[in-house]
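[STRUCTURE TOKENS]
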Amino acid sequence: MSVSLHLYSAKRGKQVQRDVWAFDITAATTVSPLPIDDVSALTTFGALTQAVIDAHLGTSDEFTAAQFDATSMGADAFGCILDMGGQADELERVVVKCYSGTAGATLVERSFKPSSTLTDSTLASECALGANGNIGIKVNFGNSPDFDGLTAGQIEIEVFWRAK
């Protein structure tokens, strides 16, 4: 079998990559990654400490705790920091979907383009490329679903990006 990857050409430039992260909602404001051994995403429904963020990425202050501190990410919002191994050069857009209800029948979807940086202490839906090639995401689902009471479902994050 022959596989051809056209990651760069003078005419088209670097190709847009599409990666998907998925999480099972296992309890109120608790998720586990799918597959279960995927540790590239640091998720939160509440504040993160700077030490946890830096340890996850292996960088210093690429994303700050203040960007996730007062978001009250419980009832209506979700945060995620993606360890891209420092390989992201451009962030094109992010699509986040939350499936809940019987057989995932209820879908809430948000799609947004990147900001230059994540805004401190807000519930804004936004994503940003970090200085070291990793990605931070905050999404406000608007209390639908209510993560404080939701104990089953899935969250799916699609990231469209270009490699270095």
Observations:
- The chain has one helix and nine strands.
- The two ends are 27 Å apart (CA to CA).
- The mean pLDDT is 86.
